[in-house]
Amino acid sequence: MLPGPFSQSSSDPDKRPAACGGETRRRMRRACGGMATTTRTATAMSSRRYETLAAAADRTGISVKTLRRRIADGSLPAYRTGRRIIRVSPEEVDGLLKPVPSSVV
After folding, report:
1. Backbone φ, ψ for residue 49 (5° rounding)
2. What pTM was estimated for this model as a whole?
3. Using 50, 70 and 90 to split pLDDT, how confident is the model at 57?
4. Which residues of 33-72 are buried (b: 16+ CB within 10 A; e: fewer)?
5. What is the pLDDT of residues 77-105, one digit of tens each?
6. Please, which residues have CB within 8 angstroms of residue 29's CB and are 6 or more apart in sequence?
7. Among 55, 79, 87, 93, which is disulfide-ready with 51 (CB 3.0 to 4.6 Å)?
8. How far apart are CA 24 and CA 16, in angstroms?
9. Residues β-bridged to residue 79
């Protein structure tokens, strides 16, 4: 057993220590669609948020295919972290949405 915040002190191997939010890995896997995840916060990147294309599509109602088209034509900046992982900034996705002028009678 290694000393530190991740040492296992209980008999349950899936129990996370209180320093990590007190969540169990089992509960985290359920909430994250079957994968246990950990959150890492970089000091320089803590103010910037990114989301997946699927999350951006769900949030805005724009399809993933349309978001990919906007990335390809350069109107939506995207950030790649590996071969397949693409993230977009929510603010930049929201910038695609323009108000429609309405006629007031």
Report:
1. -120, 140
2. 0.53
3. very high
4. eeebeeeeeeeeeeeeebeebeebbeeeebeeeebeebbe
5. 999 999 999 999 999 999 999 999 987 76
6. 35, 36
7. 55
8. 5
9. 87
